[in-house]
Please model this.
Amino acid sequence: MTWVGLDVHARSTHAAAIDRQSGELRRARFGVGSEPVLAWLAGLPQPIHGCYEAGPTGYTLYRAAQAAGLRVDVVAPSKTPRAPGDRVKSDRKDAELLVRLLLAGSLTAVAVPSETFEAARDLARTREQVRADLARVRHRISKLLLRYGLVYERSGSTWTQEHRRWLARQRFKHAPTELAYLDALTALEGLLARRAALDERLSRLAQEPELWPTVARLRCFRGIETLSALALSLEIGDFARFQRPGQLAAWLGLTPSLHQSGESETRGAITKTGSGYARRLLVEAAWHYARPPRIGVTLRNRQQGQPEQVLQISWRAQQRLYRLQQRLRARGKAGNIAVVAAARELACFLWAAAMA
Model:
């Protein structure tokens, strides 16, 4: 076996290989593209086992190596052990560190999605980016109006149809300010149109045979509709790669951090590892479980045709998460802490429903 560590960047790749039998260390450096790297890997004593850290270069090298019959794993950079006293960092040293850790079995491989699955995930994340852009544009508009003393006086929520008609009637004394305001309104309308188009496309994408079975089960839970279920399914991927529900909650970063030394043990904020998008969706859904358990018309329609076991899991989730939030609030815990605790358990219920 030849072990290989690769430090992959956009315009260069550093490689380090160790022949287990002779212990010889080989180094190489390549330019842009995967072809020179694959040719060098194919020329090494076979079989080989290589790795590189997940990053902005994605899974192109992994898929090219897989097509060539070469084993190259993608490892999690957050779980790569690094000496705290090592103050010298270079691409060559990173490649050597990876190959030695791979040889020692100290690296954790990540789950690489299929190309179609990754493409669907790209579209779902595009919708999330549009949502964030829309929130920023709305914030700019409201603060621009506030600076000139223009406040929406009607009670109730903003950004409704009535509020948007009120926005269209606002005028400013100076032309540059008027142009800035109109530009912001145009950006708002454009983002709303983009979000509507993405919602329609994602709704049809959710019904694809590869995605719909899991999406349909996740829709059985309160606070999770089609788009949220699709995004959670795409962010988490294969639920079966988690042997226990607690592993999914830990991957999502919903478990408390822990610092234990000797007789001292301190628990802190949640770790916030894994997908921040999926974590936000779960926390938003967990707010719905602060209300007493019930199955309304909308939720009942989403649950039609699903296995009875999944429906029982969904009902138990409503009862348990409601009791959990009531108990934590009665103990004086802040509302956001109770909601995050409910989100952690909701993730476990979703795992049970997907695996049922």
Observations:
- The chain has a mean pLDDT of 94.
- The first strand starts at residue 2 and ends at 8.
